[in-house]
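Below is how a single chain appears once it has passed through the pipeline. First comes the sequence as given, then the structure the pipeline wrote out for it. We keep one example in the README because the format questions we get most often are answered faster by looking than by reading.
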Amino acid sequence: MSTISLRLPESLHKKARELAKKENTSINQLVSSALAEKISALMTEEYIEQRAKRASKEKFKKVLSKVPNVEPEEYDK
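Resulting structure:
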């Protein structure tokens, strides 16, 4: 486990304290979870961008052409 010194605006610190109390957790755990969520979102964005670079419109159209042209079921409308 690492230690990090962090400077926050008082308003943000106050809100974090309130949320941590509401969630019955520590500020450290709240900040750790928030950072993990942010990192996950950024990594997902990066992954999608990398996948998009490998995309092929021709291959997409070829696969799409295999989908039958039928009306959707009533529950899917």
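Residues 36 and 58 are 37 Å apart (CA to CA).

See the next section for the split statistics.
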